[in-house]
Amino acid sequence: MADDFFDEQADQSKVKTAIVAKYFVAWAQVISSYLKNKSDKRIAYIDLFAGPGRYKSGAKSTPVYILEQAIQNSMLRDNLVTHFNDRDEANTSSLIESINGIQDVGKLRHKPQVATEEVGENLVKKFEKMNLIPTLMFVDPWGYKGLSLRLINSVLKDWACECLFFFNYSRINMGLSNAVVRDHMAALFGKERAETLTAQLEQLTPEERELTIVERLCEALLEMGGKYVLPFGFRNEKGTRTKHHLIFVSKHPLGYKIMKGVMATESTSIEQGVPSFVYSPASKRQPLLFELARPLDDLEDMLLKDFAGQVLSMNEIYEKHNYGRRYIESNYKAALSKMELAGKITGNPSYDKRPKRKGEVTCAPHVKFAFPNRK
Questions:
Q1: What pTM was computed for the model?
Q2: Tens of pLDDT along 240-256?
Q3: 317 occurs within a structural domain
């Protein structure tokens, strides 16, 4: 059955496209800068469930946005290789028509490639045998068929290759207790983990089920070779449950940092400057429900505990502490400055001796902070 997410949740599909497109541009700039003195400067974007190019409303989908970004950038015009795929021939025909209709698409040195292929074992084997150029792969299946740990790792294995995939939580939550799709769940979580997870879920509340399923998936991705995993949730219209996650997998902390910043800007809920990493239509209508927690205060308590008796730079604190937490770099700067002013920690150079920018004292990466020993 086709998932109706994009038809019913137009705003959410826009957020998904914005996250992918923004990260693609930032990733491409970083990798291209590294490759500027290399003979082969090519980078690639792969979309295995590309769809028809436009939504039913006529709005542009992710492939069109990616190509439009490339056309506007001289480096990408010359060096970007794109591969779009969809198993539905009607979709690929429509996608080709959409691509051909993009203004100045002929300026791309590498013509966009469009294939009509089932995403499965044969495609995974093909990628496993290839030595890929730096690649960002986007996997957006209607449900879960074709999405597997092997598929993700077949791209992630090579240098500067990263993956973004759409995780249909609603369908997978049901699939874990359905013996008919047991093989699909094993491909996504690993056979042993999927079996253990299925048994464990019977005792959990709906909220605990979601946290546990996403956590086990992240564990599987980390075991596979991904070093940094970052999920972004999409809730239903009432904000009562999560329907989907967009999950990012990288092997480099810079990629994780950049994606954190991108996802932060698309979060609909921000408490004390800390993003929720969730898009929820309800948070716009019911803002008071999302201001009860004070996560920046929690960060202060964590830093005092985790770095007791140590002297570290702001950059060292951020790099050691941020993984697996929703705090972004500006949250650490704010928390450290607040703690310093309150006399909880000592800065070097001190707060009053640091330069000001736009009326605020800066908290540069090199500034060191001394944490007291715990009593």
A1: 0.86
A2: 778 889 999 999 999 99
A3: yes
